[in-house]
Amino acid sequence: MLTLGVLASGRGSNFQSIIDSIESGYLKATVSVLITDKSDAYAVERAKKHNIEALVLKPKDFADRNAYYSQVAGALKKRGVELVILAGFMRVAGKPLIDEYRNKIMNIHPALLPSFPGLHGQKQAVDYGVKISGCTVHFVDEGMDTGPIIVQAAVPAYHDDTEETLSERILLQEHKVFPYAIRLYSEGRLSVEGRKVIVRGDMKNSCIINPPL
Ligand code: GAR
Fold first, then answer.
1. Structural domain for 192, as ranges
2. I need a labelling partner for 193 at 20 to 30 A (CA). Which of 44, 53, 58, 134 fits?
3. Whole-model pTM above 0.85?
4. Of 147, 36, 170, residue with least CA distance to 98
């Protein structure tokens, strides 16, 4: 049984998809804590509903980024977290967290990286006029959305898409690929070699147009 710690800043629909995947038996894991940087994040309500501890840690209450991320890493360690999930956590992870959980932090990003990193990935894709967009689950390194890619899912992007319509289409895929990537990890099927993530057993499934669920 894999112990997860989830970091989220907002609505928490990806957090919910992970909870649902655990409850349906798709994921053999447990979430020991939700950490948020926003006390009014809806993710907190979701945690409460499912008896998951919710911890609010705000950067402004700490001397600097290092102090903040040391506290976050310590809180995760204390609760036995083995894999850290950034589910709509709108901050760049700090060094103390990355050092403690090297290649054990996963982030989901609403674009096909390395295109459109950072905030508003979907709007960047709409404004650029791409014909295919999607989402990426990757391990977190020191950069902004630069870590080794685990799984990507593609969706069409239409000329009349808005940020909202494209986001909605991508989000449906996010809710499938994130649990899928965590499942690959929990089955011991992922290893990192330089920039590349090797998916053992089923190479085809890390490039997803119709996610296998
Ligand atoms: C998701 O679309 C996620 O990919 C994105 O924020 C949204 C959170 O939604 N993350 C980023 O943009 C990180 N750079 P949720 O709170 O409903 O899961």
1. 108-213
2. 134
3. yes
4. 147
Among 6, 7, 9, 13, residue to substitute to test ligand 1 (most atoms within 8 Å of Cβ): 13
* Residues 114 and 94 occupy one common structural domain: no
Index of the ligand 1 atom closest to the CA of residue 167: 2
Burial 8-20 (b: 16+ CB within 10 A, else e): bbbbbbbbbbbbe
51 and 139 share one domain: no
54: number of Cβ within 10 Å: 18
Domain count of the fold of the chain: 2
* One domain, residues 84 and 122: no
- Annotated active-site residue in 109, 120, 159, 175: 109
Q: What is the CATH number of the domain that holds 86?
A: 3.40.50.170
Mean pLDDT by 10 residues, the chain (213 residues): 98 98 97 98 98 98 98 98 98 97 98 97 98 97 96 95 97 96 96 94 64 42
